[in-house]
Amino acid sequence: MNGYEKRAQQKKEKIMHATLNMLNTSDPRKLRITDIAEAAGVSQVTIYNYFGSKEALVREVFKDYARTALKEFGEFISGDHSLKEKIEYIVFQKKKSSRTFSLQVMKQIFNDDPEMAQFLKEEYMAKGVPLVIQLIEDGKKNGEITGALSTSTIMMYMQMLTSQADTVLEYAEIHGNIDTLIEEMVHLFFYGIGSTPQPIVPT
Predict the structure, then answer these.
(1) pLDDT in tens, 134-146
(2) Cα-based angle 18, 108, 184 (whole degrees, multiple of 5)
(3) What is the DSSP string of 128-139?
(4) Separation CA 33–CA 57 (nearest Å)
(5) What residues contact 102, with CB distance under 8 A and at least 6 apart?
(6) HEC per residue, 60-125
(7) What pLDDT is stored for residue 143 in this prediction?
(8) Total-model pTM
(9) 64 φ, ψ (degrees, to nearest 5)
(10) For an engineered disulfide with 42, which of 8, 20, 46, 183 has Cβ 3.0 to 4.6 Å away?
């Protein structure tokens, strides 16, 4: 990468970082190129030259965030951590996402941008699913997950929880107890609501 390309890349990263910060508190529809340019310290023309439109910029910011999250998750679950630590990592990443982008912002972007929704679905199927399967299989090998449960059943259970994640986070935001609620959800994942774990009897 020559000097010109390096400077161009640095400008793009500044623009994307500024946009990411603004999405933390701003409605995507109300974001203005003028404000993004001011926050990034570049001209409006520079933003249009690099991204073409505000919509394309916001889309690229979300894509970059998703790619980075998946990369970090893959590195973490490949490390020397217990299953509980890995599940907690997933939960805290979800919590991190909810703080980076409000639920309303995320829903709005997904509803307004079918391309983004399709991208996230494909990324999840290609990268997320294999990572979760690896996590489960590693948990079985380490004795942290019972062999009486099939991987497909555990996957189904995790998907059921994921499908309700928005509802859970909305409840937590309303009641102001997101940290406690997320941590208790991790406890429920491992231990259920019983005081003493009961053995699974195969039928």
Answers:
(1) 888 888 888 888 8
(2) 90
(3) IHHHHHHHHHHH
(4) 10
(5) 24
(6) HHHHHHHHHHHHHHHHHHCCCCCHHHHHHHHHHHHHHHHHHCCHHHHHHHHHHCHHHHHHHHHHHH
(7) 83
(8) 0.69
(9) -65, -40
(10) 46
More confident call, 91 vs 15 = 15
* Distance, C-alpha 49 to centroid of its chain: 29
Tallying the residues shown for the chain, one arrives at: 203
Separation between Cα atoms, residue 186 and residue 198, nearest integer Å: 18
Question: Which amino acid, 8?
Answer: A
d(CA 34, CA 42): 10
In single-letter form, the type of residue at position 179 comes to D
- In one-letter notation, the amino acid at residue 28 is P
Q: How far apart are CA 109 and CA 118, in angstroms?
A: 12
Alpha carbons within 13 angstroms on the beta-carbon side of residue 143 total 0
C-beta of residue 148 within 8 angstroms of C-beta of residue 200 = yes
| Burial grade of 189 (CB within 10 A; 0-12, 13-18, 19 or more) | middle
CB 61 within 8 A of CB 20: yes
